[in-house]
């Protein structure tokens, strides 16, 4: 292969790519936060709900885990305008990722809910905590602590999955990398730098997750 | 531990040996009996699939004519804007088309033949929009839907710096964005969007009068240093342009003459 690597040619674009990394972090943190909320509600519905609630939760999870995230966002972005609902690129991708990660997180958190000892739930009932208070004070710290590896894995998948935003005009890291590649034609250098930036973004994102877990639920976890 | 390192070194050696392919010279192409041409079927009518699922279009016709002049077959490889140059560098294709605009940045990595067609960008918008000339759209209230990495993007950033840009993956998405109201307009050569407007019969399209200032030249791209092939391509393209083949074939696919014609020069 008659090719010489010239990273210096790509260096002027580094601030542009870093801006994309910031957009990626923003998109993935928001998507994961939304997904966790849906996941907690879905998991609570699946564990403590009646037959109909359990079935609805089941259909939601089956649909969103068995279709590609790209197809889901395509629907929101290209099909909804035909029904009069036109959302911005960022919002379309965010909603799609929230619904998608919410389904996976429902399953992850359901495992966590099941693993809380029955005695603790009964003790919470005894002292008069509502279902919401039980979830927040008893179940979630347990879930975050014991399922931390699974949650981190899901967070990294959401971060990497945010790259589908490139197809819909969200100016995140992958999209910007494609743009720089088309301008300079230096695919090797651009995508090596982008790969390294993604590693940095996922490390930063998992640190944010650990920090949030500590702040909200006093759950101490190891990051690396 | 030592075995892992040994395995790693062996893998790298195999990869390095396999990737020492160099671009095929003119002689090698002639002996092999085929020339590998990269085209992008997402740019109708320069290249697209007909209803028998065959590749057809202006660029396909030009490539087949060039192959006939060489006395070889044309083997087509589908590329997209991100892969067209890596394929040249890795010797997966000999020549690439697909609206390969000649720019100084790109000329650092590949070499170009003489131009085959031009791109004269204009502004496409709808009747629902209050602007009459491109200069009026130099405001943050105007959003242009553009394809990532095309030469229209830096042109837009230079000529209309205040306007916002929405980056999408291909022209069909960009035209759709304007039809849906996500974007105000598209800045592109009419050749790229004219076949797509028919998909939106309810939208009243309008092309603004006034140019946005620059003509681009699309050429055939090939590997750096592949001089014999490049020289032959220049001679062949001059011959095709002066005999009128390029003009006639362009009109056959685009149903209109090239907005700015390429004037063939006898010296190159």
Question: Can you tell me about this structure?
Answer:
The complex is a heterodimer of chains A (224) and B (268). Chain A is an all-alpha fold. Chain A has a single domain (9-217), classed as MetI-like fold (Orthogonal Bundle). Chain A contains 9 helices and no strands. Chain A is globular, with a radius of gyration of 20 Å. The two termini of chain A are 37 Å apart. Chain B has 268 residues and is of the alpha/beta class. Chain B folds into 2 domains: 22-118 and 216-254, 3-Layer(aba) Sandwich (D-Maltodextrin-Binding Protein, domain 2), CATH 3.40.190; 121-207, Periplasmic binding protein-like II (D-Maltodextrin-Binding Protein, domain 2), CATH 3.40.190.10. In chain B, 34% of the residues lie in helices and 22% in strands. Chain B has helices spanning 2-18, 26-32, 58-70, 84-89, 152-159, 171-180, 190-193, 227-242, 245-254, and strands at 34-39, 48-49, 55-56, 73-78, 95-101, 110-112, 117-119, 122-126, 143-147, 164-168, 185-188, 205-207, 216-223. The A-B interface holds A 1-3, 9, 78, 81, 86, 88-89, 166-169, 171, 175, 178-179, 181-188 and B 19-23, 81-83, 85-86, 89-91, 105-106, 108-110, 145, 148-150, 153-154, 166-169, 176-177, 180-182, 223-225.
């Amino acid at each position: 292969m008659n090719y010489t690597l010239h990273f210096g040619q790509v260096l002027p674009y580094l601030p542009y790519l870093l801006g994309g990394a910031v957009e990626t972090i923003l998109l993935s943190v928001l998507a994961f936060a939304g997904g966790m909320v849906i996941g907690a509600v879905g998991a609570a519905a699946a564990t403590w709900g009646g037959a109909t609630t359990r079935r609805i939760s089941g259909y939601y999870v089956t649909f969103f885990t068995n279709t590609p995230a790209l197809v889901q966002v395509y629907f929101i972005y290209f099909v909804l305008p035909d029904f009069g609902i036109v959302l911005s690129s960022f919002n379309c991708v965010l909603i799609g990722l929230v619904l998608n990660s919410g389904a996976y997180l429902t399953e992850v958190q359901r495992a966590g809910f099941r693993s809380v000892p029955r005695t603790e739930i009964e003790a919470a009932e005894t002292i008069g905590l509502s279902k919401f208070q039980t979830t927040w004070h008893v179940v979630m710290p347990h879930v975050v602590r014991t399922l931390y590896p699974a949650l981190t894995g899901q967070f990294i998948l959401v971060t990497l999955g945010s790259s589908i935003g490139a197809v819909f005009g969200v100016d995140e890291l992958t999209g910007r990398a494609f743009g720089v590649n088309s301008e300079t034609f230096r695919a090797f250098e651009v995508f090596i730098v982008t790969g390294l930036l993604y590693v940095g973004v996922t490390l930063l994102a998992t640190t944010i997750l650990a920090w949030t877990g500590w702040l909200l639920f006093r759950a101490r976890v190891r990051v690396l | 531990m030592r075995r892992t390192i040994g395995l790693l070194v062996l893998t790298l050696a195999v990869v390095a040996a396999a990737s020492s392919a160099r671009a095929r010279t003119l002689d090698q192409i002639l002996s092999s009996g085929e020339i590998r041409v990269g085209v992008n079927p997402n740019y109708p009518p320069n290249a697209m699939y007909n209803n028998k699922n065959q590749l057809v279009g202006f660029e396909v016709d030009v490539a087949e004519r060039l192959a006939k002049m060489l006395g070889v077959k044309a083997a087509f490889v589908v590329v997209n804007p991100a892969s067209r140059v890596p394929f040249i560098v890795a010797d997966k294709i000999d020549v690439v088309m697909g609206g390969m605009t000649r720019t100084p940045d790109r000329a650092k990595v590949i070499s170009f033949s003489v131009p085959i067609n031009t791109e004269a960008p204009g502004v496409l918008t709808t009747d629902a929009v209050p602007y009459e000339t491109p200069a009026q759209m130099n405001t943050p209230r105007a959003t242009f839907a553009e394809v990532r990495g095309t030469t229209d993007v830096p042109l837009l950033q230079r000529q209309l710096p205040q306007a916002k840009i929405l980056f999408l993956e291909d022209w069909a998405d960009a035209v759709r964005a304007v039809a849906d109201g996500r974007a105000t307009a598209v800045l592109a050569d009419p050749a790229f969007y004219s076949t797509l407007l028919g998909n939106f019969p309810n939208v009243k399209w309008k092309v603004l009068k006034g140019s946005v200032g620059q003509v681009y030249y699309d050429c055939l791209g090939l590997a750096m240093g592949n001089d014999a092939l490049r020289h032959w391509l220049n001679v062949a393209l001059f011959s095709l342009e002066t005999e009128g083949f390029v003009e006639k074939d362009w009109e056959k696919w685009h149903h209109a003459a090239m907005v700015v014609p390429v004037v063939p020069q006898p010296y190159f």
